[in-house]
Amino acid sequence: MKNILITGGAGFIGSNFCHYWATRYPDDKLVVLDLLTYAGHREHLASLEKNNGLVFIQGDIGDKALVEKLFSNYMINCVVHFAAESHVDRSIDGPDAFIQTNILGTHNLLKAAKKYWLDAGITEHHFHHVSTDEVYGSLEADAPAFTESTPFAPNSPYSASKAASDHLVRAYHHTYGLKVTTSNCSNNYGPYQDSEKLIPLIIQNILLGKSLPIYGDGKNIRDWLYVEDHCRAIDLILTKGVVGEVYNVGGENEWRNIDIVNLICDQVDAALLAEPQLLAAYPNTPCASGGLAKNLITFVKDRPGHDRRYAIDPSKCHAQLGYHPQESFETGIVKTIQWLLHNQKNVMETV
């Protein structure tokens, strides 16, 4: 039985992981630590608190006394570390929070793990660190995808702070013997994602009849990973992964931003026409007046340090863990749109 501390568990990927894990391992104890900033929502976990015994604590991973108290009180033997400042634009405007949370907060967790596991002689433990493909920098269109041996070349304060945290996790394994693993994932999408991110922003702007802003020429390429596939990969890493190893988790779905937006426009229009009652709920969507969502597309000035292409080579996950994504982008985006249309409350107030 695991007693798992899940940092950032009220955020997008963290809350999906909590639901995934509670379904598959109902005997494990889940303890969520989340500061509930703009991207954390406790209501994502309400059913798990009510029905599965999930324990929620609002707090900062940088709070040394609180983190140590959780390790002690709940006999934590596994950490899955999602908590991070993660929006590139925000990191450009205000990098301090990214340094504080992503570097110093991660180090605080590592220090607590060393104290309550290594210094106490507890050999059965696991610290899993969730990171990003952005630590590797940018790829040219014809360059091979990132592997676990690709040198780090972060281009934004966000990716630089994540790269630093990756190095700290590695150092605590090689210096002290902490049992760690790290995963670097491609762009996630799916239920519970905050509306500042590309896919939910585009969907919600369509529903509201607002412009769909596309940076630059729209030809930046990302590898997209459906969030439940990411959760499956972390499960495999925790159960089958090699201590000290890094695993790149990709969706094998490379798309240009403009092609993603065009696909979403078509899919949202189709979903609304298939359920006319939704047109009444969103009277400003172009479809409600016979228009097309694509007409809302607007190209805006590119942001500083905007990496051209990210792509993950998941061969190591395939070979060592038997991991393969189950969702294509075409199937995953339909699930995402349907979830947002039928589960996201008060869309008019969230954008």
Provide structural commentary.
This protein has 351 residues and is an alpha/beta fold. The protein has a domain of 239 residues: Rossmann fold (3-Layer(aba) Sandwich), CATH 3.40.50. The chain contains 13 helices and twelve strands. The chain has a seven-stranded parallel β-sheet, sandwiched between helices. Strand 5, helix 6 and strand 6 form a beta-alpha-beta unit. The chain starts with a strand and ends with a helix.
Structural class: alpha/beta
> Biggest sheet, strands in spatial order?
3-2-1-4-5-6-10
Biggest sheet, open or closed, and with what strands and sense?
7 strands, parallel
> Helix segment count?
13
CATH level 1 class label of the domain at 3-193 and 224-254 and 311-327: Alpha Beta
Say which CATH homologous superfamily of the domain at 3-193 and 224-254 and 311-327 is assigned.
NAD(P)-binding Rossmann-like Domain
Q: Radius of gyration, Cα only, in angstroms? A: 20 Å
| Number of beta strands | 12
How far is it from the N-terminal to the C-terminal residue, by CA? 41 Å
- Give me the strand/helix succession: EHEHEHEHHEHEEHEEHEEHHEHHH
Enumerate the spans where pLDDT stays under 50 for 5 or more consecutive residues. Answer: 346-351
CA-based shape: globular
